[in-house]
Specification:
This protein is mainly α and about 80 residues long. Helix content is about 55%, strand content about 10%. Strand 1, helix 2 (about 35-40) and strand 2 form a beta-alpha-beta unit.
Length: about 80
Amino acid sequence: MWATAYNPAVAAATEIKQGNLSIKVAAIDDGPKIPAGISDGSVSATVAQNPAGRAHVGSAGAEPLVGPGMHRALPAP
């Protein structure tokens, strides 16, 4: 199961663990319950997000369209 947000990932991992089900959960985000789920086997993998990094890359790509200076005004993550 691919859980695309923190709350659904926690809910899925909790239900799978309580039900002793053999479903694999791949989560997104790295709140405290997800690494704990990896440790106890109720979560198989996770992907941590980097919103500041995505904004930095997006502004660099937009700079040629809107003019110079936009990308440099944002601090790098």
